[in-house]
């Protein structure tokens, strides 16, 4: 899932300065699962905004709405509140949702209520761990399922570096060394010979360094949003 966390209230209040009618828009996708941008969090955020406005004796109307996913045009028809009726929409979807919705409603400012952080999984109650960086050229087949791009601080594909220490990364004692994890995983699977192979340099053009990426499945295409 895409993992994000709510921006600090001071930053949210600064973004909303000058807006007196605001819609807090939740998303029922990943951000609901990671407990940062679902309907419950939207209700809490709306209550905090109303309270902050009352304290400052500032007129502010805050409504709340939620759609199944803000990154899919299929669900925008389910909006109960029309974004055009607000000075601003505070979206607590990930950055994809905010960007996509602002393309659909260009006359209304869509403001990000979250900092979108990474692709991750919930490893314990209340804890999310980054697992993938969306590099476009997946290497997990020979790393025992541990991603060296997302989880090694230096994105090494031929690790470990000299800084690994008792299973921890030299960047932080709190952080597991990805290449130590890869070693353990390959050892458990009886595949340590994988580590003897020198991997060629990656084609980083498939990564973000090649600009914004797109995926087209020709047999499914129809008219594109924003074109
Ligand atoms: S190698 Fe690339 S695609 Fe595969 S998990 Fe890591 S970042 Fe994601
Ligand atoms: S210590 Fe491990 S995780 Fe940290 S940079 Fe070196 S190889 Fe990567």
Could you explain the architecture of this structure?
This protein has 2 domains: 2-118, Rossmann fold, CATH 3.40.50; 137-206, no CATH class. 23% of the residues lie in helices and 22% in strands. The chain has helices at 9-15, 30-33, 39-55, 95-104, 148-151, 178-188, and strands at 2-6, 21-27, 61-67, 88-91, 110-112, 114-124, 127-132, 168-169, 172-176. The strands form 3 sheets. A 4-stranded parallel sheet has the order 3-2-4-5, sandwiched between helices. Strands 1-6-7 form a 3-stranded antiparallel sheet. Strands 8-9 form a two-stranded antiparallel ribbon. Helix 4 links the parallel strand 4 (88-91) and strand 5. The longest helix is centred in the N-terminal third of the chain and has 17 residues, at 39-55. The model has no long low-confidence stretch (mean pLDDT 95). The chain binds iron/sulfur cluster (SF4) (2 copies). One iron/sulfur cluster is lined by residues 132-135, 138-140, 147, 149-150.
Which outline best applies?
A: elongated
Poorly predicted regions: none
Helix residue percentage: 10-25%
* SS class: alpha/beta
Number of domains: 2
Could you give the count of β-strands? 9
| Bound ligands, each once | iron/sulfur cluster
Widest sheet: strand ordering: 3-2-4-5
Radius of gyration: 22 Å
Distance between the termini: 28 Å
The CATH topology of the largest domain comes to: Rossmann fold
Sheet-strand content, in percent, reads 15-25%
Q: Overall pLDDT, averaged?
A: 95
